[in-house]
Amino acid sequence: MGFDLGLIIAFALAATATLADVFRIPKKLRSWVAVVLIIGIYMVNQWLYAPGFDWKTALMEGVTAGLATVGIHSTSKNTIEQWTSSKNKENKDSQSAV
Questions:
Q1: Where are the transmembrane segments (predicted)?
Q2: Could you list the residue range(s) of the whole structural domain that residue 38 is in?
Q3: Which of 18, 72, 85, 95 shows its CA 20 to 30 Å from the CA of 35?
Q4: Overall number of domains in the chain
């Protein structure tokens, strides 16, 4: 009986907002939380319910589903923007102290 991939994705996306708030993850990096949750839940689901569990196949299917769900282009763009803004903020703080 296992869970459908659509249900796993819906559960992971619903849990992402709560976990990101608890761990204070910036909004631009929250899609990575969703990817990790989808991979983790999918692998556990396959381990529990799939006959002949192969962790490599489950990992690749989880990564594929996770990146397709959040959008690899927008996730990459948001991650770069977050790192750039963090570096710029650090540079401004260090320069203002001089």
A1: 30-50
A2: 5-94
A3: 85
A4: 1
